[in-house]
Design goal:
Blueprint: H1 8-14, E1 23-27, E2 30-36, E3 42-48, E4 63-64, E5 87-88, E6 94-96, E7 112-114, H2 115-131, H3 138-142, H4 147-154, H5 176-192, H6 203-218
Antiparallel strand pairs: 1-2, 2-3, 4-5, 6-7
Helix pairs in contact: 2-5, 5-6
Amino acid sequence: MTHQLVSYHEIQRATNNFDLSNLIDVGGSGFVYKGILSSGIMVAIKVLDLENEQLFKSHNTPIVHCDLNPLLYKDMVAHVGDFGISMILAVNKSMEHTETLGTLGYIAADGMVSASGDVYSYGIMFMEVLAKRRLTDEEIFNENLGLREWIRRAFPRTIMDVVDANLFSEEEQITSKSELSIASMIELALDCTKETPKSRITMKDVVKRLNKIKNIFLET
């Protein structure tokens, strides 16, 4: 069985830019829209609500996911997220393990199983998507750099040189507001991946900043 890869712009077109007339369901974690792809296939598309999505929602007993790295194909579209090694955190909210819990490159160097470790993984994943580069990218390896350091060196002056040129469609003109939004997202990813756990932001702050970036970008 094969699965068709669908771009964000195709989803926008299929749902008429998420028009309310195509909204078919509203749930606790987001919204479901109907759409028709250019191939004629009718699909249902779920859009997660960052305010209410359960993955990082606060719980009395914290849960860490340990391996926050979805399967990214060549187009850098996420297909699967495997949280098979998620675990309930101990009372002290962090623990050390002698075995590797997670995928190398996505786990922080401190080796702590903690909420801040999940934030680190999220930041790395965010960089991959924004730059359309993998951790094993040949150009970055040839420069003896990791993905984070490669992006950090470009921030903020030459950041548009390292982000994916296809983040905006051909019809969209890249404006100063667009560049500010990209720079803000890169800064967010860098703040997620700081070296020490205490210096990283929380996932609650990530959601707040993402919403702020979105609102500023959508302002007319």
